[in-house]
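Predict the 3D structure for this chain.
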Amino acid sequence: MWLLPPPVPWTALIPTGLTLFAGQFLFQFFGIAHGMPPGLASVIVQSQALFTIVFAALALGERPTRRQWLGIVVALTGLAAIATTVGANLTLAGLLLTLVSPISFGIGNVLLKRLAPVDMLRLTVWLSLVPPLPALTLSIALDGPIGFITALTHGSWIALLSAIYLGVVATTTRSGVGCCVATPRRWSPRSRCSCRSSPRGRRRWPSASASGRCGSRAWRWCCSASP
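Done. Predicted structure below.
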């Protein structure tokens, strides 16, 4: 029953889902639609690590290490280098829209850190329920009801596979199972694997307890890996 709602209030779940998933993907797609090359967009989105460090310092009082400051300088240098290509294969609108994606991503990371300890797979699945409503609203507002229906009925199989990949593989599987296999532990019928986040921002990876079983086949698989 790992799909049951996590013990997180909707007042925390909705803002986290809007920033971590909806804002990240929507502005990334808007940027691509306005002239941002997809390969370059993937690079810019990963600057979320830079914004996460800054937002965590402002909101949580975390102090960046020297290595993190060095990373910030390198990231800013890279973003400045990318900005110099505006006017060639990159438009200013595409760059600015895409930059909102890692900013939203970073805010979502900080909101995620503020949550109480919770099963990350269940949390990821329920966070994924937040983006569809604002995404559908924007689609109808920008393209109209006819455009929305046309996109559904005449979409290519590549578009369908892309949507499935983003929803199932890139989001739920990566964030849920991926955090568990990051620090695998031996599983046994008398142990239970859990993947949790801590309210202070430090992630506690899979751990074994003396009672219970892994809550799902996914957990059982990742717990069965050798340490």
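Residues 157-181 form the longest helix (25 residues).
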